[in-house]
Inverse folding.
């Protein structure tokens, strides 16, 4: 199959088309029930929005703050005798990455809940979501700055990097060695590929939902704009690296 990519592409297209046709045929008999379920979920989300925002983001932000504080104390208690071993242990495990993953998820969900609050146009819910987002995003920023400062403590090469600077990314990249840059570029390319699939999946979900529940033009317009910006920025960055 690897020697014949055209056959593989045709098979995937045919199978996808058959699955889509079968699913559409089955859902056509349950259209009213599906619309009713979507409307019920929408009303439930609107009524429970403040509680969901506070509970979910408090849990995620609390976890990232707790584990970051634990790491900070661990580094602060280091001494010249165990410092090198401790720093190598921290750099070799994935604990920091896991904390930053939780922190990033908290940031994304904060903006999600804040945006949803505007959809339902409830002034009280908007005020609660705005205040909660401001609080949690402040904690998320503290976590990210703390991790940069911990790296600066463990690796003096990054000592002059300012985590609150608008040029933070370029400053950080300029201080990385070739192996670290290669890892960053590989991670960026994987992220690009996943994002492309994500945009395609978002388009498919919106197109499918539009058949049963009116979404309007805005979701498709936003996907197109962000997809285009994401793809063009990646291509221009690749072109710049070749120059």
């Amino acid at each position: 199959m690897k020697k014949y990519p055209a056959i593989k592409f045709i098979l995937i297209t045919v199978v996808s088309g058959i699955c889509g046709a079968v699913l559409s045929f089955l859902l056509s008999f349950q259209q009213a029930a599906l619309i009713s379920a979507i409307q019920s979920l929408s009303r439930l989300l609107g009524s429970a929005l403040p509680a969901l925002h506070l509970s979910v983001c408090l849990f995620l932000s609390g976890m990232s703050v707790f584990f970051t504080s634990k790491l900070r104390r661990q580094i602060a208690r280091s001494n010249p005798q165990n410092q090198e071993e401790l720093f190598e242990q921290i750099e070799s495990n994935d604990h920091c990455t896991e904390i930053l993953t939780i922190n990033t998820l908290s940031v994304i969900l904060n903006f999600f809940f804040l945006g949803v609050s505007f959809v339902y146009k409830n002034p009280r819910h908007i005020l609660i979501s705005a205040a909660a987002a401001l609080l949690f995003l402040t904690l998320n920023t503290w976590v990210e700055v703390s991790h940069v400062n911990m790296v600066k403590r463990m690796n003096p090469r990054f000592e002059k990097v300012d985590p609150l600077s608008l040029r933070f990314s370029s400053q950080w990249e300029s201080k990385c060695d070739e192996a670290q840059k290669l890892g960053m570029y590989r991670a960026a390319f994987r992220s690009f590929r996943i994002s492309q699939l994500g945009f395609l999946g978002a388009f498919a979900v919106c197109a499918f939902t539009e058949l049963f529940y009116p979404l309007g033009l805005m979701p498709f317009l936003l996907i197109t704009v962000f997809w285009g910006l994401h793809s063009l920025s990646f291509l221009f960055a690749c072109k710049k690296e070749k120059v």
In short: Residues 176-242 form one domain.
